[in-house]
Automatic annotation (TrEMBL):
Name of the protein this chain belongs to: Cytokinin riboside 5'-monophosphate phosphoribohydrolase
Alphabetic keyword roster: Cytokinin biosynthesis, Hydrolase
Catalytic activity: AMP + H2O = D-ribose 5-phosphate + adenine
The enzyme's E.C. designation: 3.2.2.n1
GO BP term, example: cytokinin biosynthetic process
Family: Belongs to the LOG family.
Length: 213
């Protein structure tokens, strides 16, 4: 797939992953597969020697991915704004805890510390975080991979919406949205390690891949 917009790294260039930022919800969700996916991802990151950066909470998918990584010997950095310390029940056992002054600093810190991003199921906050990374990438502000962990088809509506935006002319050729879809946790690392510009993008081809599931 061709991506013509200016980017800080060349198309086809590969990146060395050291730390992965995981966006996810503080709830457990309706499907038990969501929590299991979070645990599996945490264990996998630790087994691969990759650090985890996440939102710092101890509940729901946040707590599951962090605890699994810690139990497997991984390095976990929690980043949480001061006003959410009690609301999200901050995890004290992380390897490193960063308390920020506000949400903007939290998101910036998570971005700067990560070499790639994975979105597990979550709520409006998770959606906002991953869409911001997609937007920054579209505007050429970074070339870090963004992976949608499409557990149980959770992210299909977003993929469909991106395709709709493209079809209606709001995502134009040369300014594609470079995302990758992982249909299982086992597919996450291969997706993260694909070369720059090798994401599905909001194209008919990307949607067609999902339709095969």
């Amino acid at each position: 797939m061709k991506h013509d917009h200016t980017s800080p790294c060349g198309e086809g260039e590969t990146r060395r992953l050291k730390t992965v930022c995981v966006y996810c919800g503080t709830g457990e969700g309706a499907d038990p597969a969501y929590m299991e996916a979070a645990r599996e991802l945490g264990r996998m990151l630790a087994a691969e020697g990759l650090g985890l950066v996440y939102g710092g909470g101890s509940l729901g998918l946040m707590g599951a991915v962090a605890n699994a990584a810690l139990e497997a010997g991984g390095h976990v950095t929690g980043v949480i704004p001061a006003f959410l310390e009690e609301r999200e029940v901050m995890m004290q056992e992380v390897s490193e805890l960063v308390v920020t002054s506000d949400m903007h600093e939290r998101k910036r810190t998570m971005f700067e510390r990560a070499d790639g991003f994975v979105a597990l199921p979550g709520g409006i906050g998770t959606l906002e975080e991953v869409v911001e990374m997609l937007t920054w990438g579209q505007l050429g502000q970074h070339c870090k991979p963004v992976v949608l962990a499409d557990i149980g088809g959770f992210w299909r509506p977003l993929v469909d919406l991106l395709a709709h935006m493209r079809g209606e002319g709001f995502i134009r050729a040369g300014f594609e949205v470079d995302y990758r879809v992982a249909n299982s946790i086992a597919e996450v690392l291969p997706a993260l390690r694909r070369p720059a510009g090798a994401g599905e993008g909001a194209t008919e081809a990307g949607v067609a891949d999902l339709e095969k599931l």
